[in-house]
Write a structure and sequence with these properties.
There is one protein chain. By secondary structure, the protein is of the alpha+beta class. Among the domains are: about 1-125 and about 185-220, no CATH class; about 340-470, no CATH class. The protein has helices at about 35-60, 65-85, 90-100, 105-110, 115-120, 130-140, 185-195, 200-205, 210-220, 220-225, 230-240, 270-275, 280-300, 340-350, 350-360, 375-385, 395-410, 420-440, 445-455, 460-470, and strands at about 1-5, 10, 150-160, 160-170, 175-180, 250, 255, 260-265, 270, 305, 315, 320-325, 330, 390-395, 445. The model is unreliable at about 1-30, about 45-70 and about 465-470 (pLDDT under 50).
Length: about 475
């Protein structure tokens, strides 16, 4: 029997005991060869097949179907997230993306593996110290230790393509040293190809969630994520934009190479802990600052932080929200598309013909593909609901209802008529993931105020205003 960092014990009766992350800092070798990684991923459907056979046997013995289904989802989830965490690379990154949507899972199956989902946001098996030193020698030179007064070989955090070590820079500043795993690029590309063959398995763990577009989008961002020089530039742009802000803190960049990024250290309570243990006041406080940061980024920094899972946010002792990990950032120098705010306004006013015309103009649906107003309303109203009143309480129950609604719309064929242009794909995913995090927080915030402040078109007809301008 093993115990994870949340104090919960797990044992899959069909498998050996396992831990989702190291508790004592011991290193675990990460499979690097395509053959080894594919073999680990291939174990997922084999394990699922075995559990399915066990389910059939227990049905024949008269156990209730509902209990057997819950057990199947629990065991599949634990196996899935263990393997994704051990492999790092694209496998773990995809697992972290899925973990954001934990709030949408049915209540009867969420309990047994909520910790398994959350753990991927904060922890993963560590890279051995000798490999860490090898990367630092290659990137910072043979005298790399001269840059640091102190350097801890035990990682403070481990993520999908790199891990973070705490250190003290040569000028005395506490710093975070992010080091990319050797072979991360090959692992990312190989994992995405293999994960694409496991769509049916993911549907067991996250019923109703369309994971194929998420995989496709992750694969398209591989090059940007692997170059820490791009991440350094993005983080510094955010740090400059929010310098002196009373609500948001982004640590400054200290130095960087393609595979090593050194930034100022930032303490704080991870947002995942606030979700799990925070008071209602703390949840509301964190939710408002989280929303404000994501909405304000395009206007203040000309960029959208595109990886909104809780592991990238900290609640600081002074009340500010700290933000880390800028590997996934979308350039948005003109802010959010005005059509986004306009669409929310039209949905609230029930102007379905105008909404359909706007979707055609934006290239979301093809001309002549007339949509049923009732169906269009069912699709758009949930998007505008949180902004309908001065404050809104985000709940897990509401999100689950919206997931069921989305499944119904997909089966009706409505969503098959939508074709998001490239400029909207990432924005759409960030909005969806951020909404899921707000539902995890179950916070009540003045969401309408933030939409009004940061989304052009929500309170005015931008097209008409621009046409009337001299």
């Amino acid at each position: 029997m093993t115990e994870d960092e949340y104090g919960e014990e797990y044992r899959d009766e069909d498998e050996a005991p396992f831990s989702l992350g190291p508790r004592d800092g011991t290193a675990r070798e990460i499979p690097r060869s395509p053959w080894a990684r594919n073999a680990r991923l291939a174990s997922l459907p084999l394990g699922f097949a075995g559990r399915s056979a066990l389910r059939l046997g227990r049905r024949l013995l008269g156990q209730p179907v509902e209990l057997i289904t819950v057990e199947l989802q629990r065991r599949t989830s634990l196996h899935l997230f263990r393997v994704l965490g051990e492999l790092k690379g694209g496998a773990m990154k995809f697992g972290q993306m899925l973990s954001v949507f934990e709030a949408a899972l049915p209540p009867e199956v969420i309990g047994p593996y909520r910790a398994a989902l959350t753990l991927l946001q904060e922890a993963a098996p560590a890279l051995p110290a000798e490999q860490v030193h090898a990367v630092l020698r290659e990137e910072l030179g043979p005298t790399w230790r001269a840059h640091f007064r102190e350097f801890s070989d035990t990682p403070a955090a481990a993520a999908s393509i790199g891990q973070v070590h705490r250190a003290v820079w040569e000028d005395g500043r506490p710093v975070a040293v992010k080091i990319q795993y050797p072979g991360a690029g090959e692992a990312l590309l190989g994992d995405y190809a293999q994960l694409g063959r496991l769509i049916r398995l993911f549907s067991v763990v996250t019923p109703g969630l369309d994971v194929e577009p998420m995989l496709r989008e992750l694969k398209e961002r591989v090059a940007d994520e692997l170059d820490y020089r791009l991440e350094a530039a993005a983080q510094q742009a955010f740090a400059d934009a929010y310098r002196g802000d009373k609500e948001i803190l982004v640590p400054d960049t200290v130095t960087f190479t393609q595979r090593v990024l050194v930034t100022e250290w930032m303490d704080g309570t991870p947002l995942a802990v606030v979700i799990r243990e925070g008071t209602q006041a703390e949840r509301d406080h964190a939710g408002l600052r989280y929303t404000r940061f994501l909405f304000s980024g395009p206007e203040r920094a000309g960029r959208l932080h595109a990886d909104p899972h809780p592991g990238n946010f900290r609640l600081l002792d002074d009340g500010r929200l700290g933000v880390i990990d800028f590997g996934a950032v979308k350039q948005m120098p003109d802010g959010f598309p005005p059509a986004l705010g306009t669409l929310l306004r039209l949905a609230q006013d029930g102007e379905w013909t105008a909404a359909e015309d706007l979707l055609v103009r934006e290239g979301v649906i093809t001309p002549g593909a007339h949509l049923d107003p009732a169906a269009l309303g069912s699709f758009l109203l949930p998007l505008s609901t949180p902004a309908a009143e001065e404050t809104y309480r985000f709940t897990r129950e509401w999100l689950r209802e919206e997931v069921v609604q989305a499944i119904d719309l997909r089966e009706s064929g409505l969503l098959r008529r939508f074709n998001l242009p490239p400029s909207y794909v990432l924005v759409n995913r960030v909005v969806g993931a951020a909404t899921a995090v707000l539902c995890q927080l179950e916070c009540e915030i003045p969401f309408r105020t933030e939409v009004t402040r940061w989304l052009r078109g929500f309170t005015e007809d931008v097209a008409a205003t621009e046409a009337a301008a001299p």
